Amino acid sequence: MAAIEIRGLEKSYPSTFGTRRIPVLRGIDLSVEAGEIYGFLGPNGAGKTTTIKCILGLLTPDKGEIRLLGRESGSLESRKRLGFLPENPYFYEYLSIRELFDFTGRLFNMAPARRRARVDEVVHLVGLEGRENTKLGKCSKGMIQRAGLGQALVHDPEVLILDEPFSGLDPVGRKELRDLVLSLKQAGRTIFFSSHILQDMELMVDRVAIILGGRISREGHLDELVSRTVRYYELVFEGLDEKAAAGIGLDVIRRGERMIARVETLEEINQKIRAVHGASGRVVAMTPLKLTLEDIFMEEVAR
Amino acid sequence: MRLMAIARNTFREAVRHKVFYLLIFFGMFFAFSSRFVSMLSVGDHKKVLMDVGLAAIHFFSVLVAIFTGINLVYKEIEKKTIYNILSKPITRGEFVLGKFTGLALTLLAALGSMAVMFFLFLFVTTGSFEPRCLVFFALLYIELLVITSLSLVFSSFSTPILSSIFTITIYLVGSVLWTFQEFKTRLHEPFSRYLATGLYYLLPNLDKFNIKNEIVLQTPLPAARVLAAAAYGLVYVAALLTLAVVIFRRRELK
After folding, report:
1. Which residue does chain A place closest to B17, by CA atoms?
2. B1 touches chain A (CB under 8 A)
3. For the whole model, what pTM was predicted?
4. Cβ(A9)–Cβ(A25) below 8 Å
5. What domain range includes position B132?
6. Which CATH architecture has domain A2-226?
7. Which tens digits make up the pLDDT trace of A74-118?
């Protein structure tokens, strides 16, 4: 069963004077499998947060269906099994981190003993030990982000929706967040997160969807998306000069003793390797140069 | 219970606000200042003490109601904490009613503390206890609940600044609503008369809750009148809360 299933989601907002509707989502289809980390990538204004708000039931879709763990999204039952970290979270400034977690536990009707134990666990989990009594109004951005993640985890949800979780984190914070998300995946949780920070996505997502102008322009396993789009191979060899290389049909760049040539296909590369050996040269390296997620993303945006 | 979690948090937010104490402080300050006013006046000092004291408490508790009602609800929307709350298994109705309960508790604490200090002050200066003032405080509390529910209704669909303006306007009009009856007899054009009559029945008649003169002048205060005012207020609050829940359920949280 898919953890999150979205079919034909459309949403528009009324214009300032309500005279017409401005479409924001123009038919989103996506499906997040249980237990995977799913990246939702798109530039600002593409509809990421609107999609997330529809999943949470904060907005009513114009059209389409959203199911969360098999239930209609927005229902109380589905929200019980969901943790959410809003974008640029703002929490009650007058609460301490511990009080925020406790309040969240109460919203989930957690029994007092279990709530207390879980609050301690979560404080530890998000690395806020020793600072749990700090008022949220006095927290740094990074601490707020951690507190935000913590309040999403208090009831130990099966599905986590994180809206731009990496914003405001320093490199250490990002690494820790990545590790935490990966450990949640290990524990069988499903994580859906939106971001425009591509590196963080590349390091952890199983699948990714690129949303542009309210439509999903690509969706797939990260490996597929990336390997499907190997651009060319780089062949590095030594023991031949430019002339000899040209003789076997290679256009090279010299780097010290080594020659670097660009080869387009896998068949061609095998043939060229044999040719290099035949001319008593030595192949040092062969690197497939893939598109990075960023290249794919930029390509999609440019289209 | 989830509703109580919201209520508890709302109460906590209010009592951690400095303005809350400031308003109570000013309320008490002016109530106590009646001591000096009574020195300057001739006649029954106790009446002056009660008159000025109750008026000060009335004024400042209404300020607390308007301030906390609008501030605490608008902040949830303005600062977007509401998104986070409503992504939890909370119905919108629970949210609105939880907010109201928290505000009601806040007002009870504010008015309660002012009332206790007022009774102490009165006892120390005049050596007497005026139990009839309790009736005044009870009706004042209902008036505060009406104001709070009004601010909830406006916050459920409008922007914070407009909500404040609406609530304050209705409070002011509601306090002099009895003049509409008078007004009506002087209007000749039917449409204006219908409008005046319509507004008279639609807007909260806050004057019904104000029994200060009867208390201070110690004139008879029929129980039926007090009970009718209380019932009117509670029905009005229930209607406003229903309206707030209905509007809020349909609200899109962009």
Report:
1. A94
2. yes
3. 0.82
4. yes
5. 2-250
6. 3-Layer(aba) Sandwich (3.40)
7. 788 888 999 999 887 778 888 999 999 999 999 999 999 999 999
